[in-house]
Fold each of these.
Amino acid sequence: MGVFYLIRHCEAAGQAADAPLTETGRAQAVQLAERLAGLGIRRIIASPFRRAVDSAAPLARRLGLPLETDERLIERVLAGENLPDWREKLEQTFRDPDLCYPGGESSRQAAARGMAVLEEALAAAGGRPFALVSHGCLITLVLRELDPAIGFSDWARMTTPDVYRVTGSGSDWHVSRAWDGS
């Protein structure tokens, strides 16, 4: 049986890869470390985007663990250009996982890269808990692979930060929200 945590980054000053955490986000990262320190996490892998690394760093320091990064955990690219109706377009990609806007990636493509990281981490974990720190859309797509009932409305309810605890094995996974938003 495996246990792992999918963690959405803390409040950031923007969406760019180098966007830092806000002052609130930095405080949230410390709070996140305090709340997760006793869960037995033995490995932390984060998106290389600054907001994910900075969200995970206090937990890694507190646990005395290296903070690994993996490019496959970056946020899902919806399109190559800004879309004024991006939220509606995003919702459409949850209904049609193969829908791909120019310069972007489909939900299926994004989920596949996130799942590849997850499967590798599970194989190496030996049953020990680990954490993946990433971004809202990618996390929701990975969670949906584990529980098909998860969808756009779950993404829309996510907070920064947010934490999901996943337990199980094989094709039998149980997803529960482990963050109360405060």
Amino acid sequence: MPELEHQLSRRERQIMDILFKRGQATAAEIREGMPEAPSYSAVRTQLRILVEKGHIRHEQDGPRYLYKPTVEKEQAKQSALKRVVTTFFDGSAEKAMAALLDSSNQKLSSAELDRLEGLIQAARAREDAR
């Protein structure tokens, strides 16, 4: 299964975002979901490249192809988060979490704060077990 750590172009990321959101889509549906959409043939070219890279696959659905990601959304999310933490926060989860909490424009609910507290306690327990 390919890692999404590999660099994707802006258009490839847009396509992957659409496919993760929808689960599957035709080339025309993907094009409709793209900002400042390129030509249909440019979308088809990008889809072919993503298939060759192993990031998506396609299935015949009558006269058209349905495109689907080859990795689960959760795996892609973890890969993208790891890349962001490594690139922008020197690999520090603490720095990334602090930045998210400091810059949050919305107030966290009591339940969200409790969940974060539970995650921190679990991380401490894992660290103590080492």
Amino acid sequence: MKKVFGFLFAALLASCSVVNVEETKVDDAQTQLEIDLEMYKRVWNAYLAGDQSVISTENFTEDIVVVTGDGDIEGIDDIRVFYANYLTGFSEIEWNIVDAFGQGNRIVKQWHFKGKHTGEFFGIPASGNYLDLSGTTVVTMRDGRVAKEHDFFDMKSMLDQLTKSEGDVVIDVYQPENL
């Protein structure tokens, strides 16, 4: 009988140890996600405030991919050029992350961008119009750095706002629910 209780006790201890390892993995994954979210917010807030130095290998993988409707932008040097369009194309920039959450190595960011179109923006000459646009970005992280971004927003609304100086334009503003 002692052997049976000894075996059951040993089995119980072993199973607790497996649970603790799994809980630790979950805790570590959650901690990494929280670190990734904070880093991501910090980087984009700094960038859109004018600090272009944050697009670096400290925050982005060297093989970063940005998915666009015109094809993927690949590599850190090319994404520097790509994102510079926002800083050279607009003044009076107001940008905020409305909501951000994630799971595993993925982050979903809901953003809102406003600015005055005072410079060339992806080939569109300055119009002096104001852009007010909301969108979503799906981000893939790797080793605590951004490895891939894919933006989703209303392109027609953006083009209408940049190129039309009269009439109504649709402004796409996301309002998260208070839970």
